[in-house]
Specification:
alpha+beta, two-stranded antiparallel ribbon, 16 helices, THAP-type domain-containing protein, zinc
Length: about 475
């Protein structure tokens, strides 16, 4: 009876030679199942059902690497037919040949060491003694295979040493003639080089991640000024020392350093970024950012409160800029005032919503009065008020007038109608000329307003910063 190969697209026919092999019997269910899985045939009558071979079905030698099936070791490539099976295979013929060679070398080593029980055999893929660096991976061999070789790593991760291998008196329970010592030395060298390489790669990846992260260390001086308004690194680090020194700074998100938390708060105050944006930048959660800003702002306000000092008159005159000294009209200027507003969320309470709504900003805001000296130092800061309050009412009720002395000048904008209140205290108000009810300003008014704008440029520059 003439038999043909049962593999798909195989035209080989049996003519009495020994190149055809039966499928494993039903007694060897596991191997038979693997053969049928590699053959991938379906029932000709019903393709949805698996193919059931009969006793006359054969597989030719063209589907085995060595030309015949191997029944000894399940790791052998020819344990099942896997060559020219009628479909594309991911494993190349060269890889299968290498596996066969490695298996033969492994079997030879086992035959030499059958009398020794010091090192148990592993179920992993055998290691090539001649070329361990090309054919072995770290996952293929366990360190438990080598009980008399202990590995240590130094603190700087610069070198990994294998004790008992580098020592001349290498204590091996096996004879040196069986080749086992040489095998262990090769394996130790391989693990040493592999571990050092992996540690270097880990360091490189960590350095790249550190450079890519948004932290204070990765900012330039120009970027620091843009994000925080601080002009130098020395001032920024001084702020961090003051804030985190004697005060309980937020401890949430321990992976963020105090420098990064201060940077986060300053970015929030200066740029008004959303908390979700800050969370993405600093690698934190939105809830952590909320807690840091909520508590951090209070801590910074308390820690840096000593910087707001009302200087005495002699110190103000001594540090008066030249643009004020040259003008007779502004030589007595003690302070420059203006109101600033910060946007807030719309309150749910109707009364609070009415009090905080600013007609100027067309938004719910919190309003406060700020005063600076002619040299640009902040000398006065009022409490928070609702954005609906006028500049005059805020100035009169903030306690600002209590700091003024007789003969001093206050420089302000047109909205501060406090001239009469200042006269009662012996002080004077300097504001730009009004244009209401006039076709045009007088020449003297134009000159004085221009000088006033030049003198007040410091205040505008401070707000812009």
């Amino acid at each position: 009876m003439v038999h043909s190969c049962c593999v798909i697209n195989c035209t080989a026919r049996w003519s009495g030679d020994k190149g055809f092999f039966r499928l494993p019997s039903e007694n060897d269910k596991e191997r038979r199942k693997k053969w049928l899985r590699n053959i991938r045939r379906a029932d000709p009558e019903d393709p949805r059902k698996p193919w059931i071979p009969c006793n006359t079905d054969r597989v030719c030698k063209n589907h085995f690497v060595t030309g015949a099936p191997s029944t000894e070791d399940p790791r052998h490539p020819d344990y099942t037919p896997n060559l020219n099976m009628g479909y594309t295979s991911t494993e190349k013929l060269e890889d299968k040949l290498k596996k066969i060679k490695r298996l033969e070398r492994f079997q030879n080593r086992q035959s030499l060491n059958t009398g020794s029980n010091s090192v148990p055999s592993s179920t992993a893929e055998p290691m090539d003694v001649e070329s361990p660096f090309e054919e072995v991976s770290c996952q293929q061999v366990s360190l438990n295979q080598f009980p008399f070789a202990s590995f240590t790593v130094d603190k700087n991760f610069s070198c990994i040493t294998c004790e008992h291998v580098q020592e001349e008196a290498y204590a091996s329970p096996l004879d040196s003639g069986d080749g086992r010592d040489e095998l262990l030395k090769r394996q130790a060298i391989y693990f040493n080089q592999k571990c050092v390489q992996l540690i270097k790669e880990k360091k490189e990846v960590e350095e790249e991640l550190q450079k890519a992260s948004f932290t204070v260390m990765n900012l330039s001086k120009k970027q620091l000024k843009f994000y925080t308004g601080v002009r130098s690194w020395s001032i920024f680090h001084w702020i961090v020392r003051i804030v985190s020194g004697g005060y309980q700074f937020p401890t949430v998100c321990k992976k963020l350093k105090p420098d990064d938390k201060v940077l986060m708060i300053l970015m929030k105050l200066r740029l008004g970024l959303q908390n979700k944006d800050l969370a993405y930048r600093f690698g934190a959660t939105e809830d952590q950012v909320n807690k840091i800003i909520k508590k951090g702002v209070k801590v910074m306000a308390k820690a840096l409160r000593f910087l707001i000092v009302w200087p005495d008159k002699e110190a103000t005159i001594r540090n008066m800029p030249k643009v004020f000294k040259r003008s007779i009209s502004y030589q007595k200027t003690r302070v420059i005032i203006d109101c600033s507003e910060i946007f807030i969320k719309r309150p749910t309470n109707l009364l609070a919503r009415n009090i905080t709504y600013s007609n100027y900003k067309h938004h719910n805001t919190m309003k406060f009065l700020v005063g600076i000296t002619p040299c640009g130092a902040v000398s006065f800061l009022s409490k928070w008020w609702g954005g609906h309050v006028s500049d005059k009412e805020l100035t009169l009720n903030s306690g600002f007038l209590d700091h003024l002395e007789y003969g001093e000048q206050v420089m302000a904008d047109r909205g501060f109608l406090i001239k009469e209140e200042l006269i009662c205290r012996g002080a004077s108000l300097v504001i730009p000329a009004f244009t209401k009810g006039k076709n045009q300003l007088k020449g003297t008014e134009v000159i004085s307003s221009g000088k006033l704008l030049i003198s007040g440029s410091m205040w505008n520059a401070l707000l812009a910063a």
